[in-house]
Amino acid sequence: MFINIKDLCFGYNRSKNDIIHHFDLEIKQGEIVSILGESGSGKTTILRLLSGLEIPSHGNISINETLMVSDHTFVPPEKRGIGMVFQDYALFPHMTAGENIEFGLKGLRRKERKARVEEVLELVNMSEFKKRYPHEMSGGQQQRIALARALAPKPSLLLLDEPFSNLDAELQVKIRDELRDIIKQTGITSIFVTHDVADSRALADRIVTMHNGIVSDQKTVQLTR
Ligand SMILES: Nc1ncnc2c1ncn2[C@@H]1O[C@H](COP(=O)(O)OP(=O)(O)O)[C@@H](O)[C@H]1O
Ligand SMILES: [Mg+2]
């Protein structure tokens, strides 16, 4: 399995009450899995544990056969090869779309960086917006730039945390179909969390339901397309 999450337990502030209880999940390479659960069920926490922003009290996570965290291992966030898109896009307001995307490409030479920025802008159909600042773009356009920024360093795993919740309903429907096409085009393994069944159905290959920090009765829905 490309992603292997095994027996993960976690509580905030070393509290006695765990929020994540023996969470297990396996994901194949190239699969888009949606974690569906109501607000407060622990979805964002799972993404934070995956990306290394939180450390589990128990359990382990491996990506592509490499152990990221266990009782004896901790790979820091910047070494995990994970791209993230958040609910609020989190673009830097004082940087243009192009500069926002380029920001994450530190390891490359200037010429390669510029080429990669053009490439991902084209992927999300936003080439003509390179010089725009976030406040000069619509919510949907900002969201596409946030996606381009996450994809630019060629991560092996893409995490999306309720990426549509700030968009109006009509745009939401348009963007999620678009997003699925873009993700499938790159072939990148993705985990997409949401509280919205329709979003899950539109975007995911497989839906995993989460309830109070556990995958509820391990039931998954395999979508046929
Ligand atoms: N930084 C934090 N400190 C303490 N408790 C938190 C923190 N972040 C989230 N929680 C709690 O953890 C639980 C799961 O939160 P979260 O993972 O954000 O859920 P979801 O993303 O599914 O809405 C909630 O009960 C929330 O109140
Ligand atoms: Mg959340």
From TrEMBL:
<keyword id="KW-0408">Iron</keyword>
<dbReference type="InterPro" id="IPR027417">
    <property type="entry name" value="P-loop_NTPase"/>
</dbReference>
<dbReference type="InterPro" id="IPR050093">
    <property type="entry name" value="ABC_SmlMolc_Importer"/>
</dbReference>
<dbReference type="InterPro" id="IPR003439">
    <property type="entry name" value="ABC_transporter-like_ATP-bd"/>
</dbReference>
<keyword id="KW-0813">Transport</keyword>
<dbReference type="GO" id="GO:0016020">
    <property type="term" value="C:membrane"/>
</dbReference>
<dbReference type="InterPro" id="IPR017871">
    <property type="entry name" value="ABC_transporter-like_CS"/>
</dbReference>
<keyword id="KW-1003">Cell membrane</keyword>
<dbReference type="Pfam" id="PF00005">
    <property type="entry name" value="ABC_tran"/>
</dbReference>
<dbReference type="InterPro" id="IPR003593">
    <property type="entry name" value="AAA+_ATPase"/>
</dbReference>
<dbReference type="GO" id="GO:0005524">
    <property type="term" value="F:ATP binding"/>
</dbReference>
<comment type="subunit">
    <text>The complex is composed of two ATP-binding proteins (OpuCA), two transmembrane proteins (OpuCB and OpuCD) and a solute-binding protein (OpuCC).</text>
</comment>
<keyword id="KW-0472">Membrane</keyword>
<keyword id="KW-0547">Nucleotide-binding</keyword>
<keyword id="KW-0410">Iron transport</keyword>
<keyword id="KW-0406">Ion transport</keyword>
<protein>
    <recommendedName>
        <fullName>Carnitine transport ATP-binding protein OpuCA</fullName>
        <ecNumber>7.6.2.9</ecNumber>
    </recommendedName>
</protein>
<dbReference type="GO" id="GO:0016887">
    <property type="term" value="F:ATP hydrolysis activity"/>
</dbReference>
<dbReference type="GO" id="GO:0015418">
    <property type="term" value="F:ABC-type quaternary ammonium compound transporting activity"/>
</dbReference>
<feature type="domain" description="ABC transporter">
    <location>
        <begin position="3"/>
        <end position="223"/>
    </location>
</feature>
<dbReference type="GO" id="GO:0015408">
    <property type="term" value="F:ABC-type ferric iron transporter activity"/>
</dbReference>
<keyword id="KW-0067">ATP-binding</keyword>
<dbReference type="InterPro" id="IPR015853">
    <property type="entry name" value="ABC_transpr_FbpC"/>
</dbReference>
